[in-house]
Amino acid sequence: MYKIIVNGAKGKMGQAVISAVSADAELELAGQTDVGDDLGKTIKDTGAQIVVDFTHPSVRMQNVRTIINNGASAVIGTTGFTDEDLKAIDAESKKLKRGVLIAPNFGIGAVLMMQFAAQAAKYMPHVEIVEYHHDHKADAPSGTAIKTAQLINEAVGQTNPPAVESKEFLAERSQGAKLGNVRIHAVRLPGFVATQEVMLGALGQRLVLRHETINRESFMPGVILACKKILDKQGLIYGLEKLL
Amino acid sequence: MYKIIVNGAKGKMGQAVISAVSADAELELAGQTDVGDDLGKTIKDTGAQIVVDFTHPSVRMQNVRTIINNGASAVIGTTGFTDEDLKAIDAESKKLKRGVLIAPNFGIGAVLMMQFAAQAAKYMPHVEIVEYHHDHKADAPSGTAIKTAQLINEAVGQTNPPAVESKEFLAERSQGAKLGNVRIHAVRLPGFVATQEVMLGALGQRLVLRHETINRESFMPGVILACKKILDKQGLIYGLEKLL
Amino acid sequence: MYKIIVNGAKGKMGQAVISAVSADAELELAGQTDVGDDLGKTIKDTGAQIVVDFTHPSVRMQNVRTIINNGASAVIGTTGFTDEDLKAIDAESKKLKRGVLIAPNFGIGAVLMMQFAAQAAKYMPHVEIVEYHHDHKADAPSGTAIKTAQLINEAVGQTNPPAVESKEFLAERSQGAKLGNVRIHAVRLPGFVATQEVMLGALGQRLVLRHETINRESFMPGVILACKKILDKQGLIYGLEKLL
Amino acid sequence: MYKIIVNGAKGKMGQAVISAVSADAELELAGQTDVGDDLGKTIKDTGAQIVVDFTHPSVRMQNVRTIINNGASAVIGTTGFTDEDLKAIDAESKKLKRGVLIAPNFGIGAVLMMQFAAQAAKYMPHVEIVEYHHDHKADAPSGTAIKTAQLINEAVGQTNPPAVESKEFLAERSQGAKLGNVRIHAVRLPGFVATQEVMLGALGQRLVLRHETINRESFMPGVILACKKILDKQGLIYGLEKLL
């Protein structure tokens, strides 16, 4: 039995993780923490081996460090990590011999979408990403969109720039953020949980890879899998697909 | 028989208009002009009553003025007009007793989409627009997207702001341009002609109004209709729906 | 305070209605019934004025009759009613001076989609419907799809038949069911709650009206509204839009 | 220089192929044939090595046989071939030492969609296909949809049946045609050229692979490639991906 602490226990993802951990025969819910609680002390007191963290981008680094410095491994669904963050986490967790999984998305369909996007962009290098989330999401663009753009950029040496540099008539930019040459657009509306479209265009045709999450249950198989595999790892693992 | 000049005759829209005008029993193609030609002189020489203009945002005002100052009425598909532009055109064309139709979109389906968007936003005031065009389009966002946002803003006193002001992690903005509180996102890829989605969200549901143009034939019934009705008008008419 | 019984209390919609009724200051949850319970006796014992029914198509008529014959009004979300059913309910409920609301869909966005579909079909009479529901739904096509097709058929004298009668190469029919000339396609997959697309085509363009429900909360404002208005009515009211 | 005959020369695809062949430096347009012409004689007279055939499902077998029996290789875009057809063509073309490429779709994006569908179905075995074509298409479902379903059935031992066998309330079937357990729905409307969605559902999530063709130019790179590779082959090659 692995002992698990859920950090961000009052949030919707935290609640779903608590249910999923409680229902699993090989996992034990050792503690629940949230803003204001002493996570480090809870790890020590309970002897938990793993912390699942779904909290806020503003405390992303502080939480990872608290987890690994107190002897636990980390399964992280919080978003907002920069390249510098990831390098630092990899170095620190290797030194401490702890595993840290950071997954922009725990849904198998989303992982497939990201892999297909990178494959398809080799043949259809004109590509943009539009992601849609509920209007309480704290960051933009989503971690999944950033991860997708990174995978595309790694797979394709040169995604093509627009043929025409459009002149914009509104003060703010309508053409989205750029990661490399991949443009990302973020829509925030009630009536969405988490949706992403990767759009690849070519002469006279296009291919759209769309993933839609309609509730948080869809992430739980991925979270549980990560809990069961993270203790064997050291250093940063970025993306659920690395554990499949 | 109305005598028509097509300005922007070398462009794809211009070519489609030339075919459509030539095929219509009540219209006569009196001339074709493009960059470098003297439009004013051609109007005088041919005695054309109407100029259909599909050119470039950068010459939008110059062309309208050339048309009405030389005694013709104007059917304009060029985009990029600002509020100040529209006011000036209305005043100048009234003074000259000429009609100027400016239509962000000549497709009946697009006009329906815009009207439905304004109606639906009264009940579902959380709304964003994503428009998709080919990568040779010279402006962003599209005239149709701007017109849609204007209609929504006129219909709804207050479209709701996001519940959370998202923190952005990429240097450029992913959340699009704003017109009032309506956010607009512009995607530019080969494999599109002109597509727009108006997305309205509410608790647990959403309504999406999507219009897709796959070739320029779809605009021709609207352009021909406009040619046949513009001679009876004076001043600015903004939007094909005003002629339906 | 109106006294409400929820019939189909063990189902997911029933559970959502129980929560919504319990949370409303003007409504009182007087009873919960399901398969095997005596609904008629429960109405008598509790003195409930209204029964909200989300049960199974196979018992749709029996339940409506039990409700109105025991002196209550009915708010019905169960689907599967035929034209003959609706006529019988109208006649019987008028005789008993009870109101019966049958709504294929309690979501405001869905009601807007249906109205827009009927309006747009006047200008774009080539139309088909694709509806997507979870794979536990007991009937096909959905009540919302049937209602939409009826509204289109009422609004448009003639929706156009296909230009070519396609030859089919598979034993079963791929081109869907027909209601009048409107074809309806039903997809049943996990990962959907309730989604519908009305697709209207014309030369070179199309308009798609898409409504997506991602959880049952979206229906509750409509159910509560219906409970508060049904006591003033007699006979059948078909469609939530009649109460707006 | 390969000598090419285009059969179906008066059709829209035929016209596009004629333009593409004429524009290619390594190919020579040796002849154009259509209904009423003697294809066999034209092959003999011109000495053409390859016939590109985009005609009608009703003459699919007759044309293939005429081509290979007169000594040419075949690049076939016509649809409607059954399993028995394909077996017969493979046997006959091997005997004659001619190559026959039959491709349900010549677009690279469509080929990617089919491959991704088969891969994803291993992880998400609940899958249905909806295809959308213009209303002059002579068969349903499309060759691409049938090919996609075949690839999914080969990749996945068991695609899951619906959890509930839905009761249908309309006389004709709304749930589409079945190939194995994969349901296929065919929409026929103006405003489409050729679009397909493969929808894969799982608990709380779904993945949609959508390919959209907006004009026939998109197929030409695939047709030209097939012409250049087919002379090296013998027997049936089914699917453009086999030549990539």
From TrEMBL, chains A, B, C, D:
* Protein's UniProt keywords contain NAD: yes
Domain Dihydrodipicolinate reductase C-terminal per the UniProt entry, residue ranges:
109-244
State the pathway, as annotated in the record. Amino-acid biosynthesis; L-lysine biosynthesis via DAP pathway; (S)-tetrahydrodipicolinate from L-aspartate: step 4/4
**Catalytic reaction equation(s):** (S)-2,3,4,5-tetrahydrodipicolinate + NADP(+) + H2O = (2S,4S)-4-hydroxy-2,3,4,5-tetrahydrodipicolinate + NADPH + H(+); (S)-2,3,4,5-tetrahydrodipicolinate + NAD(+) + H2O = (2S,4S)-4-hydroxy-2,3,4,5-tetrahydrodipicolinate + NADH + H(+)
Positions bound to (S)-2,3,4,5-tetrahydrodipicolinate: H134, G143, T144
Q: Does the keyword Aminoacyl-tRNA synthetase apply?
A: no
Q: Which GO terms describe its cellular component?
A: cytoplasm
Biological processes per GO annotation: diaminopimelate biosynthetic process; lysine biosynthetic process via diaminopimelate
**Coarse class of the protein's main subcellular location:** cytoplasm
Q: Read off the HAMAP family from this record.
A: DapB (MF_00102)
Q: Which family does it belong to?
A: Belongs to the DapB family.
The entry's function note states: Catalyzes the conversion of 4-hydroxy-tetrahydrodipicolinate (HTPA) to tetrahydrodipicolinate.
- This chain belongs to the protein called 4-hydroxy-tetrahydrodipicolinate reductase
